[in-house]
Amino acid sequence: MPRSDMVQSVLKALDILRLAASSPRGMRLNEISEALDMKTSTAHNLIRTLCARGFLSKDSANRFHTGNAIHELSSLSSRNQVMLQASSLLRQLHDDYRLATITFSELTTGAIRCRLRMSPDRPGELQQPMDYVFQPYVSPTAICLQATAVNALEYEQLFPFADFGAATWGTSEAFTKEKDLARQQGYAIRRKNNATAIAFAVPEKYVLGLSLEIEQENLDALIAAAKRKIRDFRAALA
């Protein structure tokens, strides 16, 4: 598209954002207008608009930096890529383990939320539950996330062990030992007879969970296969 056909105010605003993002110290109004050969009044109006929408912020030295809206957009883009790859991962595992319930869960600020799910009662359907929440300290999904997620400490401050975990684990030392094991293995597991629930750590704040009936002699093969798929998942996001 010829430059004359473009919206000039949008181009100038994007130039300001790129310039601010490239300056670790931030930039003052006059520095921005000079660097972009832009009238001070034009730069001022564009900057004021960008600040109002959260794309720029101003510090106490009157320097402008990229604002929270930029970081939110980046985070949303990254999360969408995670969900896209997770959808493919769940479909692969569903093809291999038709009788398993498979979940992909995220540790948010205040809850462990199941984002994606596939189950034998709805074969082939990738579900996106709205209100599927795991309780803290109990399931392998919760244990694995509380052991490995980057925001686990913040979560446990909201759900202290004394109030939410003591009834299950007795002592905080017992739960800490379980988390240490999950970090070491890369997964947390619960078995009762052949009923198995297992959750694998995925980068940052996500967990892949499987629940199924499986014989002990087949469990090691499942764990190895899941770990291979998670390595591929991580590589696709790198």
Brief synopsis:
The protein has 238 residues and is α+β, with helices and mostly antiparallel strands. It folds into 2 domains: 64 residues, Arc Repressor Mutant, subunit A, CATH 1.10.10.10; 162 residues, 2-Layer Sandwich (Beta-Lactamase).
Task: Describe it.
It is a single chain. This protein is of the alpha+beta class and 238 residues long. The protein contains 10 helices and 8 strands. Helix 1 crosses helix 3, helix 5 packs across helix 6 and helix 5 crosses helix 9. A hairpin with a 2-residue loop joins strand 6 and strand 7. The chain has 2 domains: 64 residues, Winged helix-like DNA-binding domain superfamily/Winged helix DNA-binding domain (Arc Repressor Mutant, subunit A, Orthogonal Bundle), CATH 1.10.10; 162 residues, 2-Layer Sandwich (Beta-Lactamase), CATH 3.30.450.40. The protein is 52% helix and 18% strand. It has a 6-stranded antiparallel β-sheet, sandwiched between helices. A two-stranded antiparallel sheet has the order 1-2. The two termini are 32 Å apart.
